[in-house]
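Practice problem: predict the structure.
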Amino acid sequence: MLRILLVSFAALWADGAAEAACSRALLQQKTGLDQLNVIEDVKAGSGRAASDAACRTLVVHVGPWKTGTTSLQSFLVKEAKWLEQELDVLVALKGDEKSNAYLPFTILRKTGQLNQSDCPHCVDDAVFASRVEHIASLLSRPSAGVILSAEDLSLLSGKEWAMFKDLFANTSVCTRFLPVVSMRSPTSWYQSLWIEYNKLGVPQSFMQFLSSFRFGGRSRDEFGDADTQLAVLNQLQLAFGPPVAASYDQLLEQNVSTAAFLICNATLGRQGEAWERCRDALASKALSVENVSPPPAALDVVRLAFNLYNSRQRPCNASFGLRATQVPVIEVAAQMPLLCGSLDAFFVPELDKWYQETKAQAPSGRGTVHCSVDERAMTPSHWRSIRDLVPCTGDKTKTHEDS
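Answer:
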């Protein structure tokens, strides 16, 4: 069950069951400073100044998922020409914001981790070679750096990263790889994954999800780590050496966008007033990307409603059909008693190790608090509100699109 869950996150933003099957097949086979100080800390750990001036820089942004990647990639696609003209930064992203998924998945197919039939993101050898050649052509042009962003790159490990680097070994220019990674606090990250994975179906409870994902018997990597975000970091360090790294939560805390971190910090190495100008320039071009999640309590309401649907006495020909994104579900969720708390204390060893390895700045705030419906505090009125959502006992369901 865990392997199915884990791989499914690689296809959370894919379109339909085929993409989920692709990811599922993979996992079944692969077991508080101010803004200027933030920039200086990141820059100090990047090793950028030691690069060979004759080499072109390929900035390899691996996410991982749920660390602002969709907004970032949408911005890169929309503003690619502006970034080239104003900041001398080239974008290796053609098409929509997820069009680079072909690269990690085709590499995984080529290294035997996936079958072609299991992976609609994979492309044939001719298309793959053509797209890699496009990246190589960008690297042949003088620039401050070429940005390649794809969160599914975080699925790669030793031999896959070796193949990735070999793709650019025989080009006409020397290529320097600059890996970039973010980390999101565990409570926030797992909650975001839980919502994304469950919001359009009948969800597990958050604790069931966390138990299967975090404590469900994941094999440890060669460093003894089972935590997903640490495993991504470990593989990057093995392949490239220390990456440029930042806390997603700390960037939010300081009102620094993922785009500003990736472009102004990692790619350009800006500091002080130069960094502020870069940040402000990006902010002036900011792209609003709607990726709104339902509240966690809405998923609990759907789960409890499904239990009532299955336990009904009278015949019902109507399918269940409730989703956490539906307006009536969200309205009922707002009435529920909640039990809130942070789980970050359970992840202190992983957090400490990640920050120690990356030298990134941790956020100063207490982090995300997860709130679930407190079933023990529910009254008959609360249960009636949920029962009224269940087919054959009430029909208040209405999607956002209908509202």
